[in-house]
Amino acid sequence: MFTGIVEELGEVTAVETLDDACRFRLRGPVVTQGAKHGDSIAVNGVCLTVVDHEGDEFTADVMAETLNRSSLGALKPGSRVNLERPMAVGDRLGGHIVQGHVDGTGEILERKPSEHWEIVKISLPADLTRYVVEKGSITVDGISLTVVDAGPDHFTVSLIPTTLDLTTLGHKQPGDPVNLEVDVIAKYVERMLGDRARGAAE
C-alpha cells in the first residue's frame, strides 16, 4: 500500500525489451536505501517488484498486462519517474490509500499557470468517470491529488510549486500520457451497493 506522496524523482537508466515484457533499470538513491529482492516500489503509480538492487539503482520486470494498461511502455532511458516505497505500519497517511494498481491512462490536455499554482486538465476514460468527484482523491502518475473539477471526460487538478518541482507533473506537456488510479473506496462501495441491489431484486 502507498500514500501517493512521491519520495523522489528518479530516472530510467536502461530498458530491456523481452518477448512479452520489459525489464527496467531505474535510479533512485532514496527508495533504494535498504531495498532488497522482492520489495515493492511504485514507479509512476505502478507497484513494481525489485528484481535486483545495486548501489542507487534497481531493476524491475514489467509484464505485458501492465505495459498495456499503463504508460510505462512509453518510458525510455533518461525518462524521469515518480518513486515511492510502500507505507510502513504506523506511518502517517499523508495522501490517501493508493494500491499501485493502475485503472487506466489519461492525457495531459491543458496547463494553466498562475502566480502560485498551476491548473492541469487531464482526460478521463469513460469507464472511470463515475469514480471521480469534485474534491475527491485521485492518483496521477503515483501522486495523490485532489480533484478540482470533474467533467464527463476530463478532470482538473491544482498543483503547488512543490509538486511541480518534485514530480513528473512539473515537466509533462499536453499530449503526454499519465497513469490514473481512482479511489479504491469508491470501487468497493459501488460493488457492495450493486450486490445489495441484486440481492433485493431476487
UniProtKB/TrEMBL annotation:
It comes from the Bacteria. It catalyses: 2 6,7-dimethyl-8-(1-D-ribityl)lumazine + H(+) = 5-amino-6-(D-ribitylamino)uracil + riboflavin. The keyword Repeat applies. The keyword Transferase applies. InterPro entries: ATP_synth_asu-like_sf (IPR023366), Lumazine-bd (IPR001783), Lumazine-bd_dom (IPR026017), Riboflavin_synthase-like_b-brl (IPR017938). Pathway: Cofactor biosynthesis; riboflavin biosynthesis; riboflavin from 2-hydroxy-3-oxobutyl phosphate and 5-amino-6-(D-ribitylamino)uracil: step 2/2. Pfam families: Lum_binding. Lumazine-binding repeats lie at residues 1-96, 97-193. Its EC number is 2.5.1.9. It is an enzyme of class 2 (transferase). Residues 1-96, 97-193 form the Lumazine-binding domain. Keywords: Repeat, Riboflavin biosynthesis, Transferase. Catalyzes the dismutation of two molecules of 6,7-dimethyl-8-ribityllumazine, resulting in the formation of riboflavin and 5-amino-6-(D-ribitylamino)uracil. This is Riboflavin synthase.
